[in-house]
Amino acid sequence: MPILQVKAKPNSRVSALTPQDDGTWLAQLKSPPVDGKANAELIELVARRFGCAKSAVVIKTGAGSKLKRVIVPD
């Protein structure tokens, strides 16, 4: 199972998940980082991007931080 390094930017104007040159991903999230709303949007974005179920995507570390490690199923 691949692990993505994701840098989250909550309160963005657009909702997008884009790969960066250094191998990490930038997640621009419309949701605020309140009550797990931004994390829920991140899981939805990752699931849509990689074509898997939302329930299969797990934020392994960094749930309360801007830098996150996200597990994506194969």
Please give a handful of descriptors for the protein shown.
5 strands; alpha+beta; 74 residues; globular
Describe this protein's structure:
The chain is 19% helix and 32% strand. It has 1 helix and 5 strands, in the order βββαββ. The chain has a 5-stranded mixed beta sheet with strand order 2-3-1-5-4, with helices on one face. A hairpin with a 5-residue loop joins strand 4 (58-61) and strand 5 (67-71). The chain is globular. The chain starts with a strand and ends with a strand.
CA-based shape: globular
Structural class: alpha+beta
Spans of at least 5 consecutive residues with low confidence:
none
Based on CA atoms alone, the radius of gyration comes out at 11 Å
Q: In this structure, how is the largest beta sheet organized?
A: 5 strands, mixed
Strand content: 25-35%
Q: Can you write the helix and strand succession as a string? A: EEEHEE
Give the strand line-up of the largest sheet: 2-3-1-5-4
Query: What's the assembly state of these chains?
Result: single chain
Beta strand count:
5
Ends apart, CA distance between termini = 6 Å
Number of helices: 1
Instruction: Estimate percent helicity.
Output: 10-25%
Tell me, rounded to a whole number, the average pLDDT.
Answer: 95
